[in-house]
Amino acid sequence: MFKSPFTSSTSKPGQGKITLSILSPCTPVLSELCYQYPLKLVAPDPVPPRSLSQSGSNTLNINGKKESHSSSVGSAHDPHPPPLVHTIFLLTYGGGIVAGDTVDLHIRLSPDTRLNLLTQGSTKIFKTPDPLLISHQHMEVDLHPGAALLYLPDPVQPFRESAFVQKNVVRFVGYGDDGGYNLCICDWVSGGRGARGENWDFWSYESRNEIWGVPSSTPDDEKAGKKKRLLLRDNLLLHPSVLPAHQSQPYTIYATLILHGPLFSPLANHFLDEFTLLPRLGSRNWDSDQIPPELSVKEKRRKERQEKEKRDGLIWSAAKVRDGFTLVKLACPGEAGVESARSWLKDMILEEGSVVESFGERGVMCL
């Protein structure tokens, strides 16, 4: 009987693992990257954040090519950026998840590491022969103090008669310490393939996001008896028994953006400020003869965006909730609703600018 010289794998189909660590003195490295079919992970070379690449100088190396020497000076909201930001694409063979498949991804980000997690296209959920044969995607993230995760994927696209359950669990390890935990997750779903007449025709769709504060495994935390604490839970349940398909119309996409931490506080404040400045009843005194002042460039851009929101029928809200989290909710109708929502979110992020500065342009590739 043939015996393989290689050790047998302990991972199961659909499992994946990503670990970012710090190589002395301060270089982030991808220390572990593994996956099993139907999951596939692609990791291009890491690049420095824009705040470093812009402040560095270029010299020629021995091969005659330009070599960048970055300074350690960052920006006001990001004073000490790491020298490299890693990017990983989350893919599935065939471009989607087949009925009954399970994707299980575990991510560990060591202190002061940063990760852009992206997709190569919309995550397609294929038709299932039985509503009880459900596809699953589960992601667990251990975020240590000073680490940052930017997860701006393409929208999930459930096909007609599909069933899907998604759960994202993020743990702030050592929560309560002085270190900041930086998190940006966009969770959005479309009504299906509009070109084929699909409009919320799947069997069921569930998406759950949970963020926990958990104690570290140090003796001090164990001695103090610290326990994990639920910081935020956000659920979206689209099921005939909960929300009939016709009640989801005319909107063709729903989105939730979760923001937390000092790296994303400028973006969170930008959403909150812009939401406060949305036109409201009674905001203008029509009895006054005073001529309105000339609009600044920023005010003109805001007015143009608000007019486009009205034309597209896009509605959104932003609110600051407990433990420093900011939630942005978004919905858009029509055949072009997905692209309108994608364009709107990208414009808001680029207008504020801090995300691209801290994570590079790769972070918004899916928008």
UniProtKB/TrEMBL annotation:
GO MF annotation: an example: nickel cation binding
Biased composition (Polar residues): 51-62
Alphabetical keyword list: Chaperone
Top-rank taxon, per record: Eukaryota
Keyword Aminoacyl-tRNA synthetase: no
Chaperone in keyword set: yes
Chain ranges passing through the membrane: none
Region annotation Disordered: where it falls in the sequence: 47-79
Cited InterPro entries: UreD
Family from the record: Belongs to the UreD family.
The protein's name in its UniProt record: Urease accessory protein UreD
Organism: Delitschia confertaspora ATCC 74209
